[in-house]
Amino acid sequence: MATQTYTQIELLSANGTVLRRVSTAPPRLPTNDEIPIIDLAPIDGTLDERKALTSRIKAASENTGFFYIRNHRIPEELIQTSLSQAKTFFDQPLSEKMKIDSSASNVSSGYHGVGSTQSDLSIFALALGEREDYFDDVTSHPGADALYIHYPGIPDVAADSDIDVGIGSHTDIQCFTLLWQDNSGGLQVLSAQDEWLDARPIEGTLVVNIGDFLQRLSNNKFKSTVHRVYNRQPDSRYSMPFFFGFNPEAVCKVVPSCVDDEHPPLYEPISCGEVCS
Ligand SMILES: O=C(O)CCC(=O)C(=O)O
Ligand SMILES: [Fe+2]
User: Fold this and answer.
1) Ligand 1, residues at Cβ distance < 6 Å
2) Which residues form a coiled coil (predicted)?
């Protein structure tokens, strides 16, 4: 096997700037364990089917913290409507776009049909070994942000060009992220061996990834993993991430099922508002 070479990247996280070793090799496809495709249909199944689903989500959350979901129940029509709204918005001249104060925009409204943070977090509560209603009290009015992202294409990009359009290496700070990406590709996820994985778009799926706050509450059992996006092609890339948080003022401690004599809590109780803002 060829020798791997590595470089250092700089990450801005809630804990300040962190250096991380990364391979300089081009991204490779993930294995099924690294970024599994999980079918959510068993949510309505028998108790055994739901347990099997929970253990798949647990394994993925503890491994890379990224997985694709199938049968996610977000209607394709809602996705397409949101996407065309986003494209219409981005097609306007910059002067028009600047008129919209981002704090006043309602890009998240399209997602309201998606389901509540409560029901989405119940599966993570089960995967952590708690009752499914464990997070209900802290998710009655969660902070939730939706983004539409437009990565302009680079016409005539030379193979050796160092022009990059994208989002640099980062972790997501909230509980978890639900991501729709178009067919461009470009999302890369750092593996446990510090290699970039190509989290390519897969038809009919969305990407879910664990954020810093859930990693913290899980006493680091669940992984909030570094990822980045580059659009190195002539065409635009569009994506729609939705970041799920907890009630901003709710002070949350490491969940009891993740603490024992050998694993004392690594973190003090804190609110999502304090660390996620
Ligand atoms: O555009 C994407 O595919 C992901 C964007 C992302 O990682 C983020 O906004 O945190
Ligand atoms: Fe992200």
Assistant:
1) 147, 149, 167, 172, 179, 181, 187, 227, 229, 239, 241
2) none
ipTM of this complex: 0.99
**DSSP element (H, E) containing 17:** strand 16-23
Buried b (16+ CB within 10 A) or exposed e, 23-58: beeebeebeeebbbebebebbeeeeeebeebbebbb
Pick the CATH number of 26-98+111-276 from 3.40.50.360, 2.60.120.330, 3.40.50.720, 3.90.220.20: 2.60.120.330
Distance from C-alpha of 233 to C-alpha of 225, rounded to nearest angstrom: 25
Q: Tell me the pTM.
A: 0.88
- pLDDT, residue 78, reads 86
Q: Which ligand is nearest to the CA of 184?
A: 1
Q: Is 54 helix (H, G, I), strand (E, B) or coil?
A: helix
What span, in angstroms and rounded, lies between the C-alpha atoms of 25 and 172? 24
Amino acid identity for residue 163 in this structure:
I
Q: How far is the CA of 229 from the centre of ligand 1 (A)?
A: 7
